Amino acid sequence: MTNLQKEDFSKWYIQTIQQADLMDYSPVRGCIIFKPDSYEIWEHIQEEFNRRFKKEGIRNAYFPMLIPESFFTKEADHIEGFAPELPWVTEAAGEILEERLALRPTSETMIGTAFSDWINSYRDLPYEINQWANVFRWEKKTLPFLRTSEFLWQEGHTAHETESEARRRTLRMLTIYKEVVEELLAVPVYEGQKTPSERFAGAVDTFSIESMMKDGKAVQAGTSHYMGTKFAQAFDIKFLNRDNEHVFAHTTSWGVSTRLIGALIMTHGDEQGLVLPPRVAPTQVVLIPVGPWKKNPEIVERLAAIQKELLAKDVRVKLDDTDNSPGYKFNEWELKGVPLRIEFGPRDMENNQVMTKLRDQSEKVAVKLDDLEDYIFTQLDLMQGRLLESAKEMNRANEYTNIDTLEELKAHIEAKKEEGEVPGWVLAGWDGTEESEAKIKEETGFTTRNIPYAPPVLKSKCIVTGEKAKHTVWLARAY
Amino acid sequence: MTNLQKEDFSKWYIQTIQQADLMDYSPVRGCIIFKPDSYEIWEHIQEEFNRRFKKEGIRNAYFPMLIPESFFTKEADHIEGFAPELPWVTEAAGEILEERLALRPTSETMIGTAFSDWINSYRDLPYEINQWANVFRWEKKTLPFLRTSEFLWQEGHTAHETESEARRRTLRMLTIYKEVVEELLAVPVYEGQKTPSERFAGAVDTFSIESMMKDGKAVQAGTSHYMGTKFAQAFDIKFLNRDNEHVFAHTTSWGVSTRLIGALIMTHGDEQGLVLPPRVAPTQVVLIPVGPWKKNPEIVERLAAIQKELLAKDVRVKLDDTDNSPGYKFNEWELKGVPLRIEFGPRDMENNQVMTKLRDQSEKVAVKLDDLEDYIFTQLDLMQGRLLESAKEMNRANEYTNIDTLEELKAHIEAKKEEGEVPGWVLAGWDGTEESEAKIKEETGFTTRNIPYAPPVLKSKCIVTGEKAKHTVWLARAY
């Protein structure tokens, strides 16, 4: 056991995701290969969101990836926000294109243009769709899963008759994000509103769920935007309302991406490697023959029978009967974060039992073969809940709510550094000005994460100016 | 009822897919928007293939979309085949790239590079993965679903120890394609081997399933390629074999795309619009209140109750209680190809029954409410099988096996044209030369579709030269 996670979190992260066979680098700058285990985590995330979206009456669709340059220039804030990161197709089939085509960074412009054609009357509203797609943002600094030039995501886009209905949709999606990220990934989140400087390019209001990693840094895990009628005006999304007037629709958009995989790893991983919540683990249970098992073929036969029974009940279970030593196998499957290991050898067979070990527990437990199936279902459920609870505890231990000035914040960061501890998140008063926000970032590297719906404490004074605080905000370093 | 399908099949196709709300054009040349109904058909196709791939032990992964130019030049035939259709990213984030990046037309080069790193020993083999992705081919002539600049597909890539194992995988995937296309889409296919001139760029052997559309033209519905060690040599995919020698792996690739949606429509659609096989129909059953239903709220309540029960049994069912007239609704849902319509009005309520109409049958049938659920499941199953059978009949009626010379073929095409009938497919002898193949195409517009595994007749003489035939091939016009 090393102390790498504690000593050099970044190195631990890169080493873990590579050793656990989740990803590989690509020769193209900032692009990664999602190997089968990370892609399967993404598929479980997709399944759960698809189930929830369907319940909401939101349907999937697919829009072209290439977006003409002229589309972007229609909404001024939008182009300003995305232009610096766009890759461009300028040639195709041996010819220079008349107009450059951007690789989509997000699809508001493409879908806005379509909505303009499709929406004519209040009877067409709400119009609510979602897209699963690859998107591109050519960023300077990249990090596997968390910030890559190409990533996978879902982007929902809706149009509504009224502001209140659009705002309800915006907030409803944030709630769904919170539920799925907490229940499926066991990653606790902080819901709140983004400050104006951190809004999505072109949005009226942006809401986010933010999560705290084990190194105390924040990951923006999902965002939901209320666009007002800004995009409707830019793309001419007008409809005949109930009073027979042509008016602009109110639109929203919302997304989560493959960065959730990064957040999952940085929330639960430990010095031994990944720790995967059972609901998204590609392998939930691994069966390993132990002792002098090769002399008795019945050992592997019994394990194969257990595997078959579990597969029939939709448990994702592997049998590792390779030639490697049990110790090697234990390490490898721990590194991969498999929730439950089951060992079975000649002595266990005599006793009609198996030895079990949960990834987040240190003791092994003997379980009678007759009780095994119940034990597995119960323990996987318990572990799912336990991971969420221990992440919440980790979060609480790293929340600081009694820091009132920039000097105190700087001293806090310094002190934690000296102790070899993470600086965590700091709840602060903010006067609502961009100047104060910029000063916090400049002097501490902390940025406003969001304005929480329900802050644990209401801060009355701005951490920068000492003036009356307009909002209470979470401050943290962020990925 | 019009005769548009018979008189102008292309116009019928474009009009039908637009009116049925399956797609819309995009401002970018040759790109289309997959609206929710067509995207859902694709999702059902994906589900079924994922289920089958998983059974085969093939896992999903995701590789970067952008491919450096230098990758393509490694396999000479491959670059020659794809270069004319590639779109290129030349700038990103305000800078000109040092090396152009292609938008993937297929991922052999990217995945070959990865396999080279990942595969070291025979113990790593077989390495079998699949990717669901968007791909780009900038073609001159495009047609929604069947040939678009951007399309969606799956591409499987495998590496093996031996030729025989790789060839078994190649043919096994073709069998899976045949089964899924016939059982799920009810589109009968013709299995066979492509001629050398129609092979995938860089393959040793290409196999295809081809299907016949109602206008007698062919759609290549899926392909599977055995690459030999050509890509392994180009990308250095070497492994230590059981004799402790470094040798090249044998690779395969195989794919189906969203053109299956086009094939589905052109196989089953009729003058009234789409006809969708129940297993892939986004809406399988539509409930429509009829008669003076608005005066009696119980009508819609009862329909809502039926809907709820069916939804609970995973039937995809809609209730249309809009203000449109029943006649309007009947037409609209027929146009959309919904397999089963259920009408229910005050008189039906008195008789404790509903009136039902299957999309491919002309009579309405009264069904007692108590029997409805059974009726629905039985009839949807029967319809699924009936569609496959009637497509097979259509195929057989348009197969010609008694044409022996090019003159006869030209006369056949001319005669069919005069009769206003489709020229169909022609089974012909071929001497195996490129010259003969080119001549057929030049003089008749027919191309070799494939060399069937089991031709209905073996042709002994080449249709062009009259010499001894090397193969019996299917000839047809193709999309």
Automatic annotation (TrEMBL), chains A, B:
Its EC number is 6.1.1.15. It is an enzyme of class 6 (ligase). Residues 36-277 form the Aminoacyl-transfer RNA synthetases class-II family profile domain. It is found in: Cytoplasm. InterPro entries: aa-tRNA-synt_IIb, aa-tRNA-synth_II, aa-tRNA-synth_II/BPL/LPL, Anticodon-bd, Anticodon-bd_dom_sf, Pro-tRNA-ligase_IIa, Pro-tRNA-ligase_IIa_arc-type, Pro-tRNA_ligase_II_C. It catalyses: tRNA(Pro) + L-proline + ATP = L-prolyl-tRNA(Pro) + AMP + diphosphate. SMART domains: ProRS-C_1 (SM00946). Catalyzes the attachment of proline to tRNA(Pro) in a two-step reaction: proline is first activated by ATP to form Pro-AMP and then transferred to the acceptor end of tRNA(Pro). Homodimer. This is Proline--tRNA ligase. The lineage of its organism: Bacteria, Bacillati, Bacillota, Bacilli, Lactobacillales. The gene is proS.
